């Protein structure tokens, strides 16, 4: 850093001083011979081209912090580390267990982080074991990625990830020991998850001394010149003085009470501005992002305090002692005065010393700088109450739309390899042949020999999406659909496409226009665009592999108006409404058929999974009987023997006298039905036909990440 000018350049030639914490944390055996430099290895040429992975296990459970509520008894025990070969950037995900599900969630978190910088991960390299399980390999294959492994018991073949884990462990251990020596009553090895995260942040923002480059790893990975200011880095575990919350909110407190409380710096917040730190509350054990704080990076103010009583370990249910005090050499700070203690609002007593008698470890007197005492009220750049990630990285941020959970459990939606194993596989094969023939007939693509593909062009995979379409009232299958798509997961914005757009009409708009049509007696017609997606031109040639299973021989911009006619569009399904005459609808339909392949489906019946009927003049009825039956069967409220009476319904979908909360004191939900899947179905139901359940469904959807038994009971009440 001194050579690069980030520190005074004269420090580059200064001999590094000895540090007790560094010596204790990084001691290792001396090598008895030198290793030759590797040769013949191919180097990555862009971010994401090759990523090494490995996991570390801690013998000591680590603190899993939370911003409010009763501290959890869950602990971090593992961490998965991803190292990009091109940039040397590492991404760290903390885990409670090393199960395949949590490890796969870590992979998705890393890939989501990469996607925010327009980077696609192409290849992974790892040990065997967890990364060779079907759940992992299936996801790699589904994402169009490749995988390689090191030999059995040949961990040096995954040396990049192994070395990074060692470096991060050394730095995290150094930080913990450094803080433990200076604040033994508060710092504990159970804080290792935050020390490890801080170590990873420091490495990504500074890089390795051996790497001869002017850019740090995070700049190389993101292809930018932005980096975190060095002034935003502070000593891990150091004391911080946090402005009282009332003062942060602009309120007043007793003018003779202290204006700050004491906390522990746990490193920068991962989801806030870089000058926001995570702070451990010594009284409650909560970990919160704080902006209005002052860091004591040198621990020098601890000598001015009465012995600090730390209550966070008891609050977080850490009852056993991990360390023998003799392991650490602590230095008693001589205190020549016993000043009167001043009460600090809600926290430890802080002693106000005469600055002329502060004694350092070496016996010198020192006067603390004024900035330790002054707080400046500045506009906060972030919302201090905003939730942030304390468990797995990206867990809440990457939570899917609840409707997706319903779609993912639909047995009528599948991949090609699943469809060909179904009893109706012949119908799916016929649909595949028809799909390809329609594309060829409309010249959406042409078949060319592989040597004619330009060398600089990437051939994208073909992906089949298979689906049975059923009639809503009888559940009879009336169509087998096979949609051929180019693998969008391999497409790069700016190279294969410039923008994406598909009109998706909201159900609020549909209900509004059909209400107007029913009240005024307007005419309606339902249309469906055949092969809707390829009817839009693409800006540049794109090359696709031959599809599997096919052998080749040789503002609301979804509502459009024209006079008295209204066209409602949801991707390829349309509704035409006209308030004057049926002939206007016929005219528009003929015009559409001149430019597009459009199918006339007659009067409104089944639209987007909703059965639409008109029982009386001036009324439309929207129903989803099959979806409702499916929800009731999932919840066990509709008996399999339909001769029995179903469960008695409630008068309201939610308890009117109470608000559903996190309920952290109750047991976690352990039922036999999938909470996320049912919430997804309920979400789709309330959007389409049952808006009266919106409030109750949204309340239950808030707790999908960690549902409790009370949340499951609330879901069953909706059913």
Automatic annotation (TrEMBL):
InterPro entries from the UniProt entry: Integrase_cat-core, Retrotran_Ty1/copia-like, RVT_2
Alphabetical keyword list: DNA integration, DNA recombination, DNA-directed DNA polymerase, Endonuclease, Hydrolase, Magnesium, Metal-binding, Multifunctional enzyme, Nuclease, Nucleotidyltransferase, RNA-directed DNA polymerase, Transferase
GO biological process: DNA integration; DNA recombination
Entry-linked Pfam families: RVT_2
Statement: the UniProt record of this protein carries the keyword Hydrolase: yes
GO molecular function: DNA-directed DNA polymerase activity; endonuclease activity; hydrolase activity; metal ion binding; RNA-directed DNA polymerase activity
Domain Integrase catalytic: 43-225
Protein name as annotated: Reverse transcriptase RNA-dependent DNA polymerase
Species per Swiss-Prot/TrEMBL record: Nitzschia inconspicua
């Amino acid at each position: 850093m001194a050579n690069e000018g980030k520190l005074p350049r004269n420090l580059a030639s200064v001999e590094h001083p000895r540090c007790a914490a560094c010596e204790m944390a990084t001691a290792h055996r001396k090598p008895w011979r030198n290793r030759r430099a590797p040769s013949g290895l191919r180097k990555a040429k862009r971010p994401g081209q090759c990523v090494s992975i490995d996991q570390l296990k801690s013998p000591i459970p680590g603190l899993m912090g939370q911003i409010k509520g009763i501290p959890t008894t869950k602990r971090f025990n593992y961490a998965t580390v991803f190292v990009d070969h091109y940039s040397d950037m590492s991404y760290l995900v903390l885990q409670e267990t090393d199960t395949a599900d949590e490890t796969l969630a870590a992979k998705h978190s890393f890939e989501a982080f990469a996607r925010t910088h327009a980077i696609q991960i192409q290849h992974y390299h790892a040990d065997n074991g967890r990364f060779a399980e079907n759940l992992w390999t299936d996801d790699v294959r589904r994402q169009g990625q490749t995988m390689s492994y090191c030999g059995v018991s040949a961990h040096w073949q995954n040396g990049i990830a192994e070395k990074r884990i060692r470096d991060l462990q050394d730095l995290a251990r150094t930080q913990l020991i450094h803080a433990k020596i200076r604040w033994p009553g508060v710092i504990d090895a159970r804080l290792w998850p935050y020390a490890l995260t801080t170590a990873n942040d420091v490495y990504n923002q500074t890089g390795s001394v051996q790497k001869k480059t002017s850019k740090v790893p995070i700049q190389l990975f993101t292809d930018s010149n932005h980096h975190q200011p060095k002034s935003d880095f502070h000593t891990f575990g150091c004391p911080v003085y946090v402005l009282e919350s009332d003062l942060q909110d602009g309120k007043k407190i007793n003018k003779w009470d202290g204006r700050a409380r004491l906390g522990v710096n746990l490193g920068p917040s991962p989801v806030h501005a870089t000058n926001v730190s995570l702070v451990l509350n010594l009284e409650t054990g909560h970990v919160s992002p704080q902006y209005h704080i002052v860091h004591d990076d040198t621990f020098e103010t601890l000598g001015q305090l009465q012995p600090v009583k730390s209550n966070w370990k008891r609050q977080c249910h850490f009852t056993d002692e991990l360390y023998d005090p003799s392991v650490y050499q602590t230095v008693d700070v001589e205190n020549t005065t016993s000043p009167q203690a001043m009460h600090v609002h809600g926290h430890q007593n802080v002693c106000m010393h005469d600055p002329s008698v502060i004694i350092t470890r070496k016996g010198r007197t020192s006067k603390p700088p004024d900035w330790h005492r002054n707080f400046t009220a500045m506009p906060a750049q972030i919302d201090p109450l905003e939730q942030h990630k304390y468990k797995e990285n990206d867990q809440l941020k990457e939570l899917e739309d609840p409707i997706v959970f319903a779609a993912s459990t639909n047995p009528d939606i599948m991949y090609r390899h699943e469809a060909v194993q179904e009893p109706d596989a012949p119908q799916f094969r016929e649909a595949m042949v028809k799909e390809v023939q329609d594309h060829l007939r409309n010249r959406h693509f042409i078949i060319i020999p592989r040597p004619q593909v330009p060398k600089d062009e990437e051939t994208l995979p073909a992906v089949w999406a298979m689906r049975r379409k059923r009639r809503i009232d009888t559940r009879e299958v009336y169509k087998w659909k096979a949609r051929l798509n180019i693998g969008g997961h391999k497409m790069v914005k700016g190279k294969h496409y410039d923008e994406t757009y598909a009109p998706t009409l909201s159900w609020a708009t549909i209900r509004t226009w059909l209400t107007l049509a029913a009240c005024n007696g307007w005419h309606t017609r339902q249309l469906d665009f055949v092969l809707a997606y390829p009817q839009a031109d693409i800006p540049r040639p794109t090359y696709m592999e031959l599809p599997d299973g096919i052998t080749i021989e040789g503002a609301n911009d979804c509502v459009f108006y024209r006079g008295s006619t209204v066209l409602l569009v949801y991707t390829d399904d349309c509704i035409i409404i006209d308030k004057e005459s049926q002939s206007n609808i016929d005219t528009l339909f003929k015009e559409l058929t001149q430019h597009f392949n459009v199918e006339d489906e007659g009067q409104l019946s089944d639209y987007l999974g909703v059965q639409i009927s008109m029982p009386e003049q001036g009324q439309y009825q929207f129903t989803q009987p099959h979806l409702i039956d499916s929800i009731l069967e999932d919840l066990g409220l509709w008996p399999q023997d339909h001769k029995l009476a179903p469960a008695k319904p409630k008068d309201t979908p939610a308890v009117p006298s109470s608000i559903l909360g996190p309920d952290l004191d109750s047991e976690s939900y352990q039922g036999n039905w999938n909470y996320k899947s049912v919430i997804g179905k309920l979400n789709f139901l309330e959007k389409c036909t049952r808006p009266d359940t919106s409030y109750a469904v949204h309340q239950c959807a808030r707790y999908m990440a960690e549902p409790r038994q009370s949340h499951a009971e609330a879901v069953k009440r909706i059913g």
